[in-house]
Amino acid sequence: MNLLDFVIAPAMAQAAPAAGQPSMMSTLLFPIVLIAIMYFLMIRPQIKRQKEHRAMVEKLGVGDEVITNGGIAGTIRHVGESFVTVEIADGIQVKVQKGAVGNVLPRGTLKAA
């Protein structure tokens, strides 16, 4: 008798009896539910925010008061294909990508501040 047979044989004898196999439906149910939860809690709201931001960027016009993602507030003086020129103070203008515009403020907000 081999030493390895001596060690392995009792281990196999102590193994629990095999339980019944779970059905295919219950095996696939958990991942499907998990994917559905992730879609409704994470993916769908993100798609909605992207759509709202895209619509806001397309509506940008001269005279709109905006805040960039970097926190710079100013008034749009020129709208180009992919850039806008924002006047942040008298005579000081910066070019910003349209996608970097975070919010459009109601007119007169910057003058009141």
Offer a quick outline of the entry.
The protein has 113 residues and is an alpha+beta fold. It is 44% helix and 26% strand.
Main sheet: strands, sense, barrel: 5 strands, antiparallel
Low-confidence stretches: none
Kindly state the percentage of residues in helix. 40-55%
Large-scale geometry: elongated
Please state the structural category.
alpha+beta
Helix-strand pattern: HHEEEEEH
Distance between the ends = 92 Å
Q: What is the radius of gyration?
A: 31 Å
Arithmetic mean pLDDT: 86
Number of helices: 3
Strand content: 25-35%
Question: Tally of extended strands?
Answer: 5
Walk across the major sheet and give the strand order: 4-3-2-1-5
Could you characterize the architecture of this molecule?
It contains 3 helices and 5 strands, in the order ααβββββα. The mean pLDDT is 86. The radius of gyration is 31 Å and the shape is elongated. The chain is an alpha+beta fold. It has a 5-stranded antiparallel β-sheet. 6% of the residues are buried. A hairpin with a 2-residue loop joins β3 and β4. 44% of the residues lie in helices and 26% in strands.
Give me some keywords for this one:
5 strands, elongated, 113 residues, alpha+beta, single chain, five-stranded antiparallel β-sheet
Secondary-structure map with pairings?
Blueprint: H1 3-13, H2 24-58, E1 65-68, E2 73-79, E3 83-89, E4 92-97, E5 101-105, H3 109-112
Antiparallel strand pairs: 1-2, 1-5, 2-3, 3-4
